[in-house]
Design goal:
Blueprint (H helix, E strand, L loop, with lengths): L8 E2 L3 E2 L6 E2 L3 E3 L4 E6 L1 H4 L2 H16 L5 E6 H6 L1 H13 L16
Parallel strand pairs: 5-6
Antiparallel strand pairs: 1-4, 2-3, 4-5
Length: 109
């Protein structure tokens, strides 16, 4: 990501307000509320690991700092990095959250 000019925070401790558990997203673009997770079979290949990953993902989704989560495989990182970077850039460009307040202009007339 850094080679592409993207500079997220890594392994930032966040706390789920629902469960109180601490979670560490792989990458966090804090200003945009975007989390990027990279998942490899070696870390998520057993039933127990998959169960822990699902709980972790749900905890992560409840954190107030997080507005969107993108998930990629290690194959995406090593074999299709341009697609992953494109998706991240598109997500960063999309404004999330409440709509901006716009002041009305002067009344005609």
């Amino acid at each position: 990501m850094r080679d592409a000019g993207l500079c997220p925070e890594t392994q930032v401790p966040l706390v789920s307000p629902v469960t109180g558990r601490r979670v560490y997203p792989d990458f966090l673009f804090r200003a945009q509320g975007l989390v990027v997770e990279v998942e490899g079979y070696e870390w998520h290949g057993t039933r127990a690991q998959h169960q822990r990953d699902v709980l972790r993902f749900n905890d992560l989704a409840t954190c107030p700092e997080v507005r969107r989560i993108l998930r990629f495989t290690t194959a995406d990182v090593y074999r299709r990095p341009e697609g992953m970077i494109r998706d991240i850039r598109q997500a960063l460009a999309v404004r999330r959250g409440p709509p901006a307040v716009v002041s009305p202009g002067p009344s005609p007339g």
